[in-house]
Design brief:
Shape: globular
Strand content: under 5%
Largest sheet: none
Length: 70
């Protein structure tokens, strides 16, 4: 898959974990039948990038604010 698609999936997983009560397995199944290890990997990837990339952190913060307004 293209890098952009995978990054978008990782971001969706990140917010699913942060904002829902879904299990890791449920999140993976809803995002293309992936297992919980893939979900954990995606979450960690985004969390690490938030810690090391100020621009990416700003983007994630903006998305979080928009989601919180719903």
């Amino acid at each position: 898959k293209k890098r952009e698609i995978v990054c978008a999936q990782y971001i969706v997983m990140f917010f699913c974990i942060k904002l829902t009560n879904l299990s890791l397995s449920d999140i993976g199944s809803k995002l293309g039948g992936k297992d919980f290890k893939w979900v954990v990997h995606g979450f960690r990837n985004v969390a690490n990038k938030v810690e090391t990339d100020i621009e990416f952190k700003s983007y994630i913060d903006d998305v979080n604010k928009k989601l919180a307004s719903y």
